[in-house]
Amino acid sequence: MRLVHAHLDQLDEILEIYRHATRKMNEQGITQWADDYPSEEQVKDDIQKRNLYTLLDEDRVAAVVVLDQEYEDAYEKVSWSDQSGRFLVVHRLCVNPAIQGRGVSRILMGEIERFAKEHGYTSIRLDTQIKNEKAMRLYMVNEYEQKGIIYLRGSDDPHMAFEKQLD
Fold first, then answer.
1. Which domain holds residue 13?
2. Fewer CB within a 10 Å sphere, N or C end of the chain?
3. In the chain, how many domains are there?
4. 79 phi and psi angles, rounded to 5 deg
5. Residue 124 · residue 113 · CB < 8 Å
């Protein structure tokens, strides 16, 4: 499996993966995403900006993720270790629910780190809703450091900000 740019002809498949994952999270009481997030317009925009990547398993989308340097204002309040300004921010990371439990998230995290190193980033930053226990475990197992609780625009639920410095 390898991380590659998403294409507009994958839009329907990507949207279905996000919708399926959102339903599954909501059933577990995780309200990090809603029926209208991520929206079709947002996903199209991510593809056109070339910030949306897919992890392909042959021709099937195994996972999707947005990689860029954009972040919410809440990130300004975090005491980040890396002050270089060369950090990668991870958004909307999602493993296709049809193949969850097969190690795809571990592979995806490795591909994100490979991508970051290849593009000269010195660290990776991301966040997740604290009650999203699977995501919290995933980041901690992959040696991301908890940097503090933040509140994102439009959410009353606390999120944990994470950072991983790269060699």
1. 2-165
2. C
3. 1
4. -90, 85
5. yes
Q: Are 112 and 3 in contact (CB under 8 A)?
A: yes
- For 73, counting Cβ atoms within 10 Å of its Cβ (0-12 exposed, 13-18 middle, 19+ buried), the class is exposed
Sheet holding 52-57, edge to edge: 2-5, 52-57, 60-68, 87-95, 123-129, 159-165, 145-150
* DSSP bridge partners of 90: 67
Instruction: Count CA within 13 A, CB hemisphere, residue 110.
Output: 7
Q: Phi and psi at residue 122, in whole multiples of 5°?
A: -100, -15
pLDDT at 138: 96
Residues 6+ apart with CB under 8 A from 59: none
Cis link prior to 38 (omega < 30° from 0)?
Answer: yes
Encode pLDDT of 3-32 as tens digits. 999 999 999 999 999 999 999 988 888 888
Q: The CATH number of the domain where 85 resides is what?
A: 3.40.630.30
pLDDT in the model for residue 35: 74
